[in-house]
Amino acid sequence: MPEQTAVTPDRSTVRLALVVGGLVLAVLLGFGLGRMNGTATTGASSGGAAALTADHTHPPGTGAHDHGSVAGADQGAAAEPGGLAVSSGGYTLVPLATELAAGRPGQLRFQVRDVQRRPVTRFAVVHDKPMHLIVVRRDLTGYQHLHPTMSPDGTWAVPVTLPQPGVWRAYADFTVVADNGAQSALTLGVDLVAPGRYEPRPLPAATTSTTVDGFTVGYQGSPQAGVTVPLTFRIDGAAGGAVLQRYLGAYGHLVALREGDLGYLHVHPEPELAGGQVKFWLTTPGPGRYRLYLDFQVANKVHTAEFTLTVP
Fold first, then answer.
1. Are 210 and 305 in contact (CB under 8 A)?
2. Gap between the terminal Cα atoms of the chain
3. CA 167 – CA 151 distance, rounded (Å)
């Protein structure tokens, strides 16, 4: 029987084998660590949104969405305000006209377009509406919370009256649904103009109590820059505590606008009243003065209480 000779691999082959083995081990470790950290992406395969929206339907052109939790991402909006730009995240707010006659009923029409300049037509229903539009003059007067309707071509329209001349800011607050089911919550802002003599009003002094339409509205809480803190609002009528109704799926809606750049925060409350009061969790991004607008509903009518807040 002929003698067999053992084959010894050369050094270059050994080095190559070690490198390949190291790469494979790194990939396997990275995958395992990712699983341990619970890394996930939001998309069509995510079951959370489907479970949260199983009890209601959505109008054509809209999709499922995440309502948020008591102290989740929906509370306090975000550390940074929105509405400072006309474009963000690959989407652009495109008004078809930006000039409206002061004091006259008009109509605001606009589209939300993607990076290919195509009008977007799929939006999630968030707090009962696929689009929330906030309009306010740049001196923080004339606040309006509107809900446009969308035509099949992606053009939104809403009646609006700018009661006084000046420059106004319009905030489109919405959640886009991509083709793969992923959702992007955005707030885009654009200026509107009502020609005429502009006479800005000074911001009222800071206070924790105000009256509106016969109701006394007050809040407790001390907002701090960069810290999430509770704000609890109490609404009293002539006979005591008002009987609040849900408006847009909640007992109240709170918008905060920062003086100067008009940075926008839209905060939703805890799902249930606490001792007849409405509790929010607010995160103000920095020191300065803010104007708070609280929408609430009593006897099927919506009212708005306004406050000036100073954050040290």
1. yes
2. 94
3. 27
pTM summary value: 0.76
pLDDT in tens, 187-238: 999 999 999 999 999 999 999 999 999 999 999 999 999 999 999 999 999 9
Asked if residue 155 lies in contact with residue 131, where contact means CB atoms within 8 angstroms, the answer is no
* Confidence band for 32, pLDDT divided at 50, 70 and 90: very low
Confidence category of residue 80, pLDDT binned at 50, 70, 90: confident
Cα–Cα distance list, 236 to 33, 104, 209, 265 (Å): 53, 34, 11, 25
Distance in angstroms (rounded) separating the CA atoms of residues 295 and 244? 11
Buried/exposed 198-231: b ≥16 CB within 10 Å, e otherwise: eeeeeeeeeeeebeeeebebbbebebeeeeeebb
Taking the C-alpha atoms of residue 296 and residue 291, their distance in angstroms, rounded to an integer, is 16
Q: How far apart are CA 293 and CA 256, in angstroms?
A: 6
> What's the angle, vertex CA 76, arms to CA 75 and CA 81, rounded to 5?
135
Question: Each residue of 85-102: pLDDT tens digit?
Answer: 999 999 999 999 999 999
- The structure tokens listed for 259 are 């003086």
Q: How far is CA 108 from the centre of its chain?
A: 21
- Residue 230 confidence (pLDDT): 97
Count other Cβ atoms within 10 Å, centred on residue 281: 20
The tokens describing 183, both together, are: 């959702």
Residue type, 221: G
3-state secondary structure string, 195-212?
Answer: CCCCCCCCCCCCCCEEEE
For 39-107, give the DSSP string: ----STT-SHHHHHTTTS---TTEE------TTSTTTT--SS-B-S-SEETTEEEEES--B--TTSEEE
Which amino acid is present at 137? R
